[in-house]
Amino acid sequence: YAMRVCDSILVGLTAFCTDASGCHDADLESHVLQHCVQFAGDAALLKAGKLLKSKMPNLVLVHRDPSHGIRLAAAAAEKADANFGEVWQTLFNGKDALVPSLQYSHEWRARLACIQ
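Above: the chain sequence. Below: its structure as tokens.
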């Protein structure tokens, strides 16, 4: 999996460095590869980041991106406290959850605009 991801990133970079007429800018591609110093991804992509070091000689920092850690920490809190899970469902995830109901309701938007 990591090798496919690595190959996909490199193919995407080559496509990025190719103009609409099909002319590939090898200098630009080389420049990008030489100047990448950081790779962030979820746990499954960390190995791909390490594999990219063979093509990106200045890649010195391969780490897990913070958003995944925050999501996992919040999920752990939900599992640890039944009340938190119930509140989350009522506010955000349930069929008639408050936040989406307010967000997508023209009636509520009009009411809130009037009281502003």
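The radius of gyration is 22 Å.
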